[in-house]
TrEMBL record:
Its cofactor is Mg(2+). It is an enzyme of class 6 (ligase). GO terms for cellular component: cytosol. It comes from Sulfurimicrobium lacus. The gene is acsA. Catalyzes the conversion of acetate into acetyl-CoA (AcCoA), an essential intermediate at the junction of anabolic and catabolic pathways. AcsA undergoes a two-step reaction. In the first half reaction, AcsA combines acetate with ATP to form acetyl-adenylate (AcAMP) intermediate. In the second half reaction, it can then transfer the acetyl group from AcAMP to the sulfhydryl group of CoA, forming the product AcCoA. Mg(2+) binds at V544, V549. The lineage of its organism: Bacteria, Pseudomonadati, Pseudomonadota, Betaproteobacteria, Nitrosomonadales. SUPFAM superfamilies: Acetyl-CoA synthetase-like (SSF56801). This is Acetyl-coenzyme A synthetase.
Amino acid sequence: MASIESILHETRLFPPSDAFQAQANVSGIEAYRALCAQAEQDYEGFWGAQARENLVWHKPFSHVLDESKAPFYRWFHDGEMNVSYNCLDKHLATQGDKTAIIFEADDGTVSKVSYQELYERVCQFANGLKSLNIVKGDRVIIYMPMSVEAVVAMQACARIGAIHSVVFGGFSAKSLHERIIDARAKAVITADESMRGGKAIPLKAAVDEALGLGGCECIEKVVVYRRSGGAVQWDAQRDMWWHDLVKDQAKSCEPTWVNAEDPLFILYTSGSTGKPKGVQHSSAGFLLGAVLSMKWVFDYKPGDVYWCTADVGWITGHTYVAYGPLAMGATEVIFEGIPTYPDAGRFWKVIQDHKVTTFYTAPTAIRSLIKLGNDLPKQYDMSSLRLLGTVGEPINPEAWMWYHEVVGQSRCPIVDTWWQTETGSNMIAPLPGAVATKPGSCTLPLPGIIADIVDEVGHEVEKGHGGFLVIKRPFPSQLRTLWGDPERFQKTYFPEELGGKYYLAGDSSHRDADGYYWIMGRIDDVLNVSGHRLGTMEIESALVANPLVAEAAVVGKPHEIKGEAVVAYVVLKGARPEGEEAKKIAADLRNWVGHEIGPIAKPDEIRFGDNLPKTRSGKIMRRLLRAIAKGEEITSDTSTLENPAILEQLKNAVK
Ligand code: PRX
């Protein structure tokens, strides 16, 4: 992760080239400023015009923003539309034959789907869902590999007004179970197995396990896409093959017109308590954010081949795989595999083979490929690239420079996009033909996004100082609530301390003299491991659920590739283990966490102690645990600790 020291001294500036600026959708800083000024002068007028221009409405809206029940904002709330119509039907008359998706499987097999074909497949699947009695407002869990079918399933839900909740295929049966129950879903759509790096990962078996954990009576059907052909258990009452479901379905399906505010999806993300939050997004506002950022940030042009490497299980895969590119009528690449299989040239080969113009990935992927040297990327022809993007965590300036020089051949602007599951689309990011970039900074807010940095009582901090990143005005693509928990929504994102009106992002940031934003990291107990959000409390709860464990505390520490690594301090119910026994229990606990949450949450390090450093009132001193994890000297006063001797023990207890 970018250290504060390295970015505070970053002075390199990369203005857009004349050639890029000349062709850009927003060309030159004055054009960017004019858009921002329009939004500031007439906020509703600006957003209303954008929504009319960029979305197709079945029934036009007459109200832009309703703030009467703030912070439960409503946008365009008397309008009707359909997201799938906006992504598919809209293009049929003008570009039905254009390739919508180039799918490259893990083993290198390539298939292409045109807009017409995608439309037909979505319609057939939507009709299939209807035949299962799934209706508007029902929740459908999608637990799928990266595939055309995953996008078809999401679009089909959107088509009939069902609310999808995609669960990342790397999450465990337990995590899936928790989400099924919280969403009270009616169906699960899954695959037999997913293929990653030549290995088959069972998905249907995880669904069986999840449903076997009990309390899932809400689930009526499990639809299974045959991906690998691997063996699966079958419940003839409940399970159904995807191909059987769509076999006799019509290739057209009238979209269900939904209200602009009807939920499009719920996506669970980690927060500072053990329970994941069901972030609920609207239909129209979400799609508007996706479309505008495709235009402004990705400078979308009809000839582009757009490739976002994110899995559809994360927000990036929702906005920039399943919806944004299709709403633009783009050709996009969907890639099933991993960057290092069959070798570490895979990303570069995909770019070369499909003539990718716009490549969007995470700093962690870039850092892992940097380690393998400059030779690999140089073996591929990446001259098709014209724009690069990053997302998910701060990018350290050196990784930025490598991306710029080695991948982008010093020709492609880099858009470092700051946003979140909750914001639905890019919030702070350069418009590449307008805003000069600085390595490590996500630069300036998008037009209409009124960002700021404030102190703990909501007062703006001076430039050059750090504080809490907030968005001061509601914006169309923001989350509407947390599924089933409006109170937590209000408390988490619109805290009273800041006046109850600012959206609190949960990140700290500072702004330099040019007003550029530099994200410093989370202010809550959320870790960012390889660009994935993980709550420390979630991992702690998973650990203490193990019968051996009495107590656990989890913190992050900087990691060269992953950004942050997970360090767990564990107190067992029995004696503190040592030597081989400690190694074995640590390995078991890592697997346990993998099983409870998913492999991404496995602690990188486990340290056993007789107890944890606590104040006399019993509060765990996480600050000290973080310092120990980083190997820092503890210079602060530890006299309030009940058990100062524990610090020495934990320092020497790496497993
Ligand atoms: O801490 C910020 C970091 O990722 C968090 C959001 O995580 P998630 O909801 O999983 O969404 C990730 C993809 C949008 C933020 O609170 N983050 C995301 N993008 C950046 C970033 N930190 C710095 N720079 C970024 N470009």
